[in-house]
Design brief:
single chain, alpha/beta, Nucleotidyltransferase, domain 5, 2 domains, five-stranded mixed sheet
Amino acid sequence: MYYTGIDLHKFTSYLTTVDSSGNIVKQADIKNAEHNFVQYFSVLGNENLTTIESTMTWYWLNDLLSSLHILMIITHAKYVKAIAYAKVKTDKVDSHTLAQLLRMDYIPAAHKISNDKRLLRDALRARLKIVQRHTSVTNSMQLLLAKYNFDSPTQLLGIPKFQYEQLTEVEALLDEQMLDLVRRTPLEKSSFILL
């Protein structure tokens, strides 16, 4: 059995593979292209367990490794740092540390959402971001009125009136984006809590 620690970044990854005794079998700094990973693991075979720190970009790599029959464990980054404190931090060191922790079964695993739930979770996260922006815009509108001690936007004149109108347009756009997201998500609409 081989154990591979992958320090995954946006464009490149550093991989370190160790054997059951902890000896380094292979290391590589590769671009994040599928064929590079296929080539790396083709030499090792599928008797391989891999791990990466939790990132927002793991879907594609998990899917690729699954197609190669290689299991990938997502590591809880915060707890790995607590286990493996290092004065020297490089991609090479990080990938080697991950590989050794994986070999010793010291990986604090993070939850890896199933493929069938990804779409819903991503849609909910996207909606949450829109709701947060919407709240910020609504608060700005209220603050603009409070700044002049007005009860209604009809009392505003000049630049403040223009600002309020712009905020109103943004608010309407965000409302529409929330509804579009709910309509386009091919899952139960009850999963969304409408404001």
